[in-house]
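Preliminary data (for renewal application), guanine complex.
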Amino acid sequence: MATVGAQAFRGSILHFVDDPLHGEERSFEYFDDGVLLLRDGRVEAAGDASLRAAWPEVEPVDYRGKLIVPGFIDTHVHYAQTDMIAAYGEQLLTWLERYAFPTERRFDDPAHAREVAEFFLDELLRNGTTTAMVFATVHPESADALFAAAAARNLRIIAGKVLMDRNCPEFLRDTAASGYEESQRLIERWHRRGRLLYAVTPRFAPTSTEEQLRQAGRLLDEHDGVFLQSHVAENRSEVAWVAQLFPWSRSYLDVYDRFGLLRSRSVYAHCIHLDAADRMRMAQAGAAMSFCPTSNLFLGSGLFDLEAAAASGTRVCIGTDVGGGTSFSMLRTLSEAYKVAQMAGHSLSPLRAFYLATLGSARALHLDALIGNFERGREGDFTVLDPQATPLLARRMRQTDSLAERLFLWMMLGDDRAVSATHVMGQRQSPRAAASQR
Ligand code: GUN
Ligand code: ZN
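Predicted structure:
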């Protein structure tokens, strides 16, 4: 077999082929001494190390002793909030006023946006995250800066300019017409350019007029394959405010539904204070719930009901929600997800947790034909986890005898230190901007 553009990686390999909820044993493939073969950045095969014989002249990169998993997918994060992560003392609505809005104001400056975008992407990659669904700010330049930085690294990023035409400071306000036009220009410039995808991004119902929500629906109708991202039912005061602003609505989610914003490729962060009818509607529409546990705990928003989400058949994925969230690490995010489930008396199994951070999120985004596992033809984005990353992890790992136990330790005790390497379309990534920004 010709090996032009061929790469091989040897190590333990894990990927998912189905949701562990449908039966754990059949949901994944694991090769203790495995090899991942890529051609031109895409998966040719993943299997036992004996597969090497197919390409005898390709010397594998040696990741023996480590675990190769598909790159993590962060389905909800605000790059412009990087500089206000861990801001003290407020809950959602006052936190937005006091911290988020002033921080986002600076993104009218393209140089600032570029600098933060580079740092943000470095941070994703250091944490093993290879795909993210990202809020920029209201400024179209902020989306341009992120897309340009992601294009230079060949990253699969979904992002959009925030739409926000009321109930926010003047300096962050667009209009229904300008938001529509700016989004349309960004879609033309970036959507499906290389690996980039556009998401129409109304911040949340309280900061958009009905006309702006209508225009958001129009953008989705007019552009094939474009996503929608927003927030819903995060905080009790927010829910009460939405009921006042949209008195005709049955529920907060119903506001989005009324404007055609509930469909496949719609991703709603939080989804905490929903009822059964809302969940059923999410499932029917093919929309996804992004569970953001570090943010929900940090902002005191509430506990996402993972069991009810699964029972409704809704697509569920995981998000860090930085800067409301407190870590870029999907491992740390999974550990908080585990604790949130515990508060409801359920255990999030380590296999399901890793599924949610990889194939589950790819499915939620309708991107599972491209990313999320190592089936043939998938894009070669992967993360290499080190069981010896810290003295405690190494010590505790020595006492395990199953894959599930090891995964659980990575998610409970791991963070960026446990990520040995991150590869994008086969290429190992090294932080770019880090040296100048420390
Ligand atoms: N709701 C509206 N805007 C935001 C935001 O920036 N972060 C979070 N966590 N919730 C929001
Ligand atoms: Zn958010």
